[in-house]
Every structure is written in structure tokens, then in C-alpha cells.
Design a protein that fits this description.
115 residues, alpha+beta, globular
């Protein structure tokens, strides 16, 4: 089963996730959505599986710098539009393992999912 790790190369959490996967001997493809982009279909699929609330990084600098109007009344469609416009608002990393989607990095969650 293929594994794809989505995120931004320079992110510290991404580095931790990649290091963990490498040390565990887990083969994966890396997709940098800062340079390669991310499409609506992926965001909609991820939001359906984990919820847009999990996927949208509201604590990051990019989100905090948005105008107040963009930060209010967020629903799935608005969240996806924001993440399409600014991929750095997607919480990192996003790991696709078959139908499973894991958002964020926790070694114990990775270990359990990637046995």
C-alpha cells in the first residue's frame, strides 16, 4: 500500500515526521504542497475523512494574518477555499495511507497505523 506524506519541506514538524518514517524504514512519497500545490479533490477528500476543522491550521501565522472577515463564519467550503489559496494553512503533515488520513505528527499514531 503506498504512502504519501503531504506538507511543506521547511516545516519543523514535517522534518520530525520524515525523520521518523526514515528511521522506521517506511517508504513514502513526499508531496510539498507549497511548491507543487494541492488540488480541491484532495482537500475535499481529507476534509470528509478528518473534518475541515482538523485540517485547517487556525493557529498558524498565515491564518492569524487573514482579515477578520475571512476568519469568521467558516464552513467546509470556505475552509477549502482558504487552503487552496494559501496551502500553508493546511495543518502539517497530512499522511495518506490507503484510505486512512492522518493529520499532524504523533509517533505513537504513526507506529499504530503503519505496522
Amino acid at each position: 500500500m503506498s504512502i504519501t506524506l503531504y506538507g511543506i519541506k521547511a516545516c519543523d514538524t514535517m522534518k520530525k515526521a520524515r525523520d521518523w518514517l526514515d528511521k522506521a524504514g517506511v517508504a513514502y512519497d513526499f508531496h510539498d504542497y507549497k511548491t507543487q500545490g494541492v488540488d480541491r479533490a484532495h482537500l475535499e477528500k481529507w476534509a470528509k475523512v478528518v473534518g475541515w476543522e482538523v485540517l485547517l491550521n487556525k493557529t498558524g501565522t498565515t491564518f492569524r494574518k487573514l482579515p477578520d472577515a475571512d476568519k469568521t463564519n467558516i464552513d467546509a467550503a470556505k475552509a477549502i477555499a482558504l487552503m487552496l489559496a494559501q496551502p500553508s494553512m493546511i495543518k502539517r503533515p497530512v499522511l495518506e495511507h490507503g484510505a486512512e488520513i492522518i493529520v499532524g505528527f504523533k509517533p505513537d499514531v504513526y507506529a499504530g497505523a503503519l505496522k
